[in-house]
Write a structure and sequence with these properties.
16-stranded antiparallel beta sheet; Ubiquitin-like (UB roll); 9 helices; 5 domains; alpha+beta; three-stranded mixed beta sheet; globular
Length: 656
């Protein structure tokens, strides 16, 4: 027995020694590999950069180091090879960067440090900024047309341009900003009527005293007025109509902003797909000829689209458009769209010019069928809207809508028949839309959408109520590929009779574009649907009932919010992105009451794919604090399952 024990100890010892030798051999082999491996920039540091951030300076140089994610890729430690020649060039790049921004005496050097591996290198750029050149004095001169000097200098818009200019007395003199300053003054002069204005900047720089005296020379040329507008391009509309749509008039004082706005007005018109407005070569005097080139859209088009979503399931749309009815540039569109929850037929007739180019009038008769969880609605009506686009990012409208409605509501007891409510609605609607960022693919800034509705005017409505809502959104780019998106929406209904309003007028929350984690309209007050239990003779047993389901009933006030971080992952899969979100809100039968119905929340994440028709979206939300109703619990019994806490949403387009 002792023999076997000693033999076992010997074998274990030999195995240990072999393992130790193998480890040492592996380590020596790895060290040999490391010695043969090309030197890489593992870390890059900027020191002494008091004025500019290290991130900004790193963008100016060729040398780059491993990012945090790249360091995790242990199988691939290449791609940032150390090149000392390139580092020396980077020293010159950094020096030029500082020189152009007012630091003529900047000193830049570098050092290379060893890391914990022979191939890992730490590159450090050391910057000694020194004192910058400051603007000591700014003088304005006017050449040729000095008689306009006082008019220009006293103009409030010109003074505003001076106050916002990148060149101010006491500031650093940054040569790189010179073109921007020249362009701002030229644009201001052109907006004051000087179509041929030219501006130049001369700088007397004292490098020893670190001071710069600037002379801004303006050559405004003649004060110009529009004499003639020549329209070119094939068009089914008259020259006079196109000029009217531009908003320009003969004898109008020239303005660069007015020309840009006129081009936008033509381009935004439904009849045109292309418009340019420029100044042809001509003698410089007080009258100015312009050339406008336009190209029309096809006068008649048919469009179809098909999509899929978890709410409406299969949906489709078809439309026919005529863009020049009666040769007056009026537009007529007949369209139909259908899904499993909505079928609508619309006729839209647009008068594109009412008071001016910014105003239009739309007549829209329609028919609609809605099939919601708690009601079914048929309605016929017409909407007349006056739309005014004040600017590129601000639009308002006032509408009058009249509808005849038939609403079929489910009763709580199946032994009772469903009720059909017939009613008329007549209301004035006011809406606004403000979008700080013009692009929709890369949103940025604020979006505000207020809405107000007053029903019951002139005694032509079955119900009298007032409805107010507001939707506020904010988009904040956190990086080139990351965006924080947030939305808050709230609203209230005010009615003469507390419970008289039809279901379709009330507020609902939950769904693909609302509080995810909840299915459509599920968040908020709900009522129970039960099946009556009958005896063998078919008589209802009064004390017996069988649970069927809950249906939402909506409310007269609501509050909801969404917070979402959107992350593009184009570097991994082109066009793909991910998102995480936190949504919440509540609907109240009457006024908000958190003690009666507290806020409820849902969190989750999703995938995005940027397709040709927009972002295809898959979101999965999880209810954080569901009620018994949300979990299908009735009178102490559980009629639900685990999936009642989860909402799965598939759609095209962002949630908000």
């Amino acid at each position: 027995m002792l023999y076997f024990k000693n033999l076992l100890v010997l074998v274990i010892g030999l195995l240990f020694v072999a393992a130790l030798l193998n480890v040492n051999a592996s380590a020596e082999a790895k060290n040999l590999v490391d010695e043969d491996k090309a030197e890489q920039v593992w870390k890059l540091t900027i020191e002494g950069n008091d004025t500019f951030s290290g991130v900004l300076i790193k963008d100016q140089i060729a040398t780059s180091a491993f990012s945090f994610l790249e360091k995790l890729k242990f199988w691939d430690r290449s791609g940032h090879q150390l090149n000392e020649t390139e580092i020396k060039k980077d020293v010159i790049r950094i020096r030029n960067f500082y020189n152009r921004r007012g630091f003529p005496n900047v000193q830049v050097r570098y050092r290379i440090e060893d890391g914990n591996k022979s191939w890992k290198k730490h590159v450090v750029f050391i910057i000694n900024e020194q004192a910058p050149i400051r603007i000591n004095d700014i003088t304005f001169t006017f050449t040729n047309e000095d008689r306009y000097r006082e008019v220009v200098m006293q103009n409030s818009d010109f003074q505003k341009t001076r106050r916002k200019s990148e060149f101010q007395e006491g500031d650093r003199y940054e040569i790189i900003k010179k073109p921007e300053v020249v362009a701002s003054y030229e644009q201001r002069l052109k907006n004051l009527g000087f179509a041929y204005a030219k501006v130049s900047i001369e700088a007397a720089v004292d490098t020893a005293g670190l001071a710069a005296n600037l002379t801004i020379k303006s050559s405004p040329g003649p004060l110009t007025y529009i004499n003639n507008i020549d329209v070119k391009g094939d068009s089914s509309s008259s020259k006079g109509y196109i000029i009217r749509e531009s908003g320009l008039k003969k004898g109008q004082k020239f303005s660069l902003n007015a020309l840009q706005e006129a081009q936008r007005e033509i381009f935004n018109h439904h009849l045109f797909r292309f418009a340019t407005l420029n100044i042809p070569e001509q003698e410089q005097d007080s009258t100015l000829d312009l050339t406008m080139r336009v190209r029309e859209n096809e006068l008649r088009t048919v469009k179809t689209s098909v999509g899929f979503g978890t709410e409406g399931l299969l949906r489709g749309r078809v439309s026919w458009t005529h863009r020049n009815v009666f040769d007056r540039a009026h537009q007529f569109t007949a369209s139909a769209r259908a899904s499993f929850i909505e079928q609508t037929v619309n006729l839209d007739y647009i008068f594109p010019y009412v008071f001016n180019t910014k105003s239009s009038f739309v007549v829209s008769p329609f028919g609609q069928h809605l099939l919601e969880p708690s009601f079914e609605l048929f309605r016929l009506g017409v909407t007349n809207s006056l739309i005014y686009q004040y600017s590129r990012n601000l639009t308002g409208s006032v509408s009058y809508q009249f509808t005849r409605n038939a609403e079929l509501s489910q009763r709580t007891d199946e032994s009772l028949p469903d009720t059909t409510q017939n009613f008329n609605l007549s209301s004035i609607q006011l809406s606004g839309y403000y979008n700080q960022g013009f692009g929709r693919r890369s949103q940025n800034g604020w979006v505000v959408q207020p809405f107000a509705e007053v029903s019951g005017l002139l005694g032509s409505s079955t119900f009298e109520f007032q409805k107010l809502t507001v939707d506020v959104r904010r988009y904040i780019p956190l990086s080139k590929s990351t965006t924080l998106a947030a939305r808050i929406e709230t609203g209230a209904l005010f009615a003469a009779k507390e419970d008289s309003l039809p279901t379709n007028i009330r507020f609902f929350l939950g769904g693909t574009n609302s509080v995810r984690g909840y299915v459509r309209h599920e968040l908020g007050p709900q009522r129970v649907i039960i099946d009556s239990v009958r005896n063998d003779d078919g008589q209802v047993i009064a004390d017996s009932a069988e649970f069927r389901r809950f249906v939402p009933v909506g409310g007269r006030s609501f509050f909801g919010f969404n917070f979402e971080i959107r992350q593009g992952i184009d570097q991994l899969i082109d066009g793909f992105g991910i998102a995480i979100f936190l949504d919440g809100g509540q609907v109240w039968r009457r006024e908000p009451d958190l003690s009666l119905r507290p806020m409820q929340f849902a969190a989750g994440g999703g995938l995005r794919y940027q397709s040709p028709i927009g972002p295809v979206r898959l979101d999965v939300g999880y209810k954080l604090n569901p009620s018994d109703t949300d979990l299908k619990r009735f009178q102490g019994q559980d009629f639900g399952n685990a999936f009642d806490r989860i909402g799965i949403h598939i759609s095209v387009g962002q949630a908000f």
